[in-house]
């Protein structure tokens, strides 16, 4: 069996090497369009390079000829050296073919003069990237405008056109049809990209255009952190939670209503998130929790699937006569999201998550007794999300989520067994933010936003209570807060670099004094997305 595996692995490696060589050779020999500059591909993520049109010139009006054919009106000249021989040029307002789709200047057009012999230069907004410099008059009679056989290197998709409306195309190619973004250039036709950033831009654009507000920040989601209290022999008390202190999942955490393609890492530090107490005193400990996540959209961006794998440094806390520990890996969560409504300023989505019991058990020893809490429960996580925002500086997101335990966890104490059911939770998040910096052309920091959030978590039922006793030994397991709820406030910063890397940092503090499971939470995250 091992020999067969090695045989297939070796041959697969050879096939991949050959395929990579063929693709590299094909990219190197790709025909470049006239005037192609690979450096122009390294543009911001919002669009690809826009080809620079030929400079606009004003030609003297020619007498109308009744014998002129429509084909003659689309040629720059009947001979390579005669650019003014095309008859019946009718100057008029012509829509700008280089306008970027989704640009705010949707009504921009080329303004031309209708008087014979009068020079007129088009005015472009800064988003089109054209220069208003006066062209060299010598370029009017350059023999390089047309090829030796008389075929034009430039075409127009308008019967009445001027030099500003010309676009570079391959020889013999037809004009760009309606409905196709003229700013998009296939990287395979234009040659290899000049940098990894340009390749990534081409790859994401190939997946399809996204709404402007798809780049809005995710919700921080505060701290979804709960635990139960175990009291052994009426003397020792400790906090326990299945899944390495990371079993409860907040769908809103580092998420938004829109689907996305991303890979991210999150680090959280809960101040005083763990507790043990006994005759020797009370001891609090911090809890460090992390998770890796990946989200991939499908169905043309209408749906996405996300995987989250949390892990922590494990619950390892000890006091006089008491110790508690758990595994580091948490419960794997799968999230399915679907878009219900989507336009340039509002997105509404719904979906559900499933938290699978992939983590280990919690083991505690106190007063010579051993207590075990297994991790068996499956959690269903239905949710509804909305994100609003557009071209302005303000944006908002909201999540409403349930956390429903479908089964209980096994409790073992002194050869006795019981089932402990965790509380079902309802969680709501409201996030409001404003852009401090937003520059799609910046070379370093392109986006910076300030985000504030409120989060409320409420238990939908009273706590389950497990009581086991065997002689002088006893165990009481429950949520000592009963049917509790807590409210958290979060403030954070969200920044995106020119490389496409997103950095986030925030601080969460509980607003209630009694119903709290931690004193403070610091969150840091890094993600790579479109």
Automatic annotation (TrEMBL):
Residues 98-111 have a biased composition (Polar residues). Residues 33-184 are annotated as: Disordered. Residues 146-158 have a biased composition (Acidic residues). Residues 1-25 form the signal peptide. Residues 55-75, 116-129 have a biased composition (Low complexity). It comes from the Bacteria. Keywords: Signal. This is Uncharacterized protein. It comes from Lignipirellula cremea. The lineage of its organism: Bacteria, Pseudomonadati, Planctomycetota, Planctomycetia, Pirellulales.
């Amino acid at each position: 069996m091992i020999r067969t595996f090695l045989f297939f692995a070796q041959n697969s490696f050879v096939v991949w090497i050959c395929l990579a060589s063929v693709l590299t050779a094909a990219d190197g020999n790709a025909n470049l369009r006239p005037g192609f500059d690979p450096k122009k591909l390294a543009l911001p993520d919002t669009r690809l390079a826009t080809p620079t049109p030929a400079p606009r010139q004003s030609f003297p009006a020619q007498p109308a000829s009744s014998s002129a054919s429509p084909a003659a009106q689309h040629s720059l000249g009947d001979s390579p050296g005669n650019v003014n021989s095309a008859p019946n040029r009718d100057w008029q307002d012509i829509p700008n073919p280089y306008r970027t789709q989704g640009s705010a200047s949707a009504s921009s057009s080329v303004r031309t003069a209708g008087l014979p012999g009068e020079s007129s230069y088009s005015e472009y907004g800064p988003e089109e990237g054209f220069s208003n410099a006066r062209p060299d008059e010598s370029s009017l009679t350059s023999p390089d405008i047309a090829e030796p056989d008389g075929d034009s290197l430039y075409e127009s998709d308008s019967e009445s056109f001027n030099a500003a409306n010309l676009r570079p195309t391959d020889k013999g190619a037809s004009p760009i049809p309606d409905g196709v973004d003229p700013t998009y250039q296939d990287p395979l036709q234009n040659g290899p990209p000049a940098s990894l950033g340009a390749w990534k831009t081409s790859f994401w654009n190939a997946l399809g255009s996204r709404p402007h507000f798809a780049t809005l920040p995710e919700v921080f989601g505060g701290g979804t952190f709960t635990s139960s209290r175990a009291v052994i022999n009426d003397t020792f008390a400790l906090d326990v939670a299945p899944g390495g202190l990371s079993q409860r999942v907040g769908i809103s955490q580092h998420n938004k209503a829109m689907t996305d393609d991303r890979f991210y890492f999150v680090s959280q530090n809960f101040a005083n998130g763990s507790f043990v107490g006994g005759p020797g005193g009370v001891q609090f400990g911090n809890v460090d929790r992390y998770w890796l996540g990946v989200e991939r959209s499908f169905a043309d961006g209408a749906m996405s699937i996300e995987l989250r794998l949390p892990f922590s440094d494990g619950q390892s806390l000890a006091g006089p006569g008491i110790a508690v520990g758990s595994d580091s890996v948490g419960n794997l969560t799968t999230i399915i999201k679907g878009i219900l409504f989507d336009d340039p300023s509002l997105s509404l989505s719904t979906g559900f998550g499933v938290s699978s019991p992939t983590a280990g058990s919690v083991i505690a020893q106190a007063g010579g007794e051993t207590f075990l809490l297994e991790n068996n429960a499956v959690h269903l996580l239905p949710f509804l999300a909305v994100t609003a925002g557009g071209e302005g500086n303000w944006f908002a997101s909201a999540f409403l989520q349930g956390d429903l335990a479908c089964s209980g966890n096994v409790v073992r104490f002194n050869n006795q067994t019981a089932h402990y059911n965790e509380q079902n939770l309802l969680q709501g998040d409201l996030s409001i933010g404003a852009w401090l910096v937003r520059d799609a052309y910046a070379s370093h920091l392109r986006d910076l936003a300030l985000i504030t959030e409120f989060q409320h978590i409420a238990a939908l039922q009273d706590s389950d209570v497990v009581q086991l006793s065997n002689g002088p030994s006893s165990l009481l397991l429950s949520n000592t807060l009963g049917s509790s709820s807590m409210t958290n406030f979060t403030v954070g910063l969200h920044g995106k670099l020119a490389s496409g890397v997103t950095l986030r940092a925030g601080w969460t503090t509980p607003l209630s004094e009694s119903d709290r499971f931690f004193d403070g939470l610091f969150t840091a995250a890094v993600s790579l997305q479109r």
